[in-house]
Amino acid sequence: MNPYQNQDWPQLFAERAASSRDKRLQAYYAAGCITADTPLADAPLVALDVETTGLDPRQHAIVSLGLVPMNLQRIRCSDARYWVVKPTSELSAESVTFHHITHSDIRHAPRLAHVLDELLEALAGKVVVAHYRNIERNFLDQALRQYLGEGLAFPIIDTMELEARLHPRRTVSWWERLRGRRPVSIRLADSRLRYGLPLYSAHHALTDALACAELLQAQVATHYPAHTPVGALWS
To answer: What is the pTM of this model?
Structure first.
């Protein structure tokens, strides 16, 4: 369930700019949000990925973040940011096999609280692009509740959701399997292959942010006119 379905984002940002107690959050929300009728071609975007110690934001924590500003024509790699942060929960052997961030990598890393200024400045005024919004949205919201006592809300264009819209019938029957039909995967790497995009090493926050940025550009170029309102894609 999406608690932000049909959210009036400019109104929410204005309300939170007035009610937030933390100055960093006040500045973030005061930067505002574009209206839902803004054409995609004019939308300021930032692709974002976070790697975590697990999948439950109540028990696990962020271990790295990568972001890269973009629009439909350009991905601004020179302005990309990447942080490894010391999580508030222990690294597990399973999570290390995914993101390859080890105990030695985080030993002298800062806590997320110490990079919040830079993170919020990089996100201010932008629409986030992510692949599977629940990770980025829920983990950042939970982290800020832990550090600041209030959460973080932001609009997201979810490239996984866009693929789900394009492929609503992803499962196949046993008969279709016998005939050689395969289920459609909407995972990041598999989605990229459908657009002829190259494979990247997965589960590195900055690489995945770049991969997501390229995927959105390909999705829009293939399926959406540049004048499509951003509100048709975000949530």
So the answer is: 0.93
